[in-house]
Design brief:
Blueprint lengths: L4 E4 H6 L2 H13 L7 H27 L5 H11 L2 H17 L7 H11 L1 H13 L5 H11 L1 H4 E4 L1
Helix pairs in contact: 3-4, 3-7, 3-8, 4-5, 5-7
Length: 156
């Protein structure tokens, strides 16, 4: 189990973002195997969201190729990110039909994209994702509020 992050009540009184930052710290530094089920769900959704926001579905599939994508889809759905889970499902179906194996790195993906133009369809998935409301950050904030003790340990 990954221990909750200590958050000072005094620091939180000055900046309410301390709770979010603590959760982000826990999620960004933890391995899946060391997380509770509640933390794991947030971890999968958080990483999917961040990878897509920073580099699109291309980046997500390259950087998180070791994720069990069906578990990410389930985590998103459980979180309430139903539209995002459907987009990921469709992107995964498209990608597995379009290529014979996952690329080893982003450069390989870009090379394939230049030859086969996979990115055109991935860009459609990206744009659909960017337009989803509520967004995953909002849903994770609600999740944190409901499951605070899994992520936060209050200290003076």
């Amino acid at each position: 189990m990954s221990n909750p992050i200590e958050v000072s009540k005094k620091a939180y009184a000055s900046f309410e973002g301390e709770k979010w930052n603590a959760m982000a710290d826990l999620l960004s530094r933890s391995d899946l195997e060391e997380l509770t089920a509640v933390q794991r769900l947030a971890h999968l959704a958080w990483w999917y969201n961040n990878e897509v926001l920073n580099g699109g579905h291309d980046q997500y599939f390259v950087n998180k190729d070791y994720f069990v994508h069906s578990e990410v889809i389930s985590a998103l759905h459980s979180l309430g990110a139903v539209n995002q889970s459907n987009i990921l499902r469709e992107a995964l179906i498209y990608l597995t039909k379009a290529i014979d194996h996952m690329p080893n790195d982003y450069d390989e993906f870009i090379a394939w994209d230049k030859e086969y133009r996979y990115g055109d369809q991935m860009s459609i998935f990206d744009n659909q994702f960017y337009n989803c409301r509520p967004d995953i950050d909002e849903l994770l904030e609600n999740y944190l509020a409901t499951n605070e003790s899994e992520f936060i340990q209050w200290v003076p």
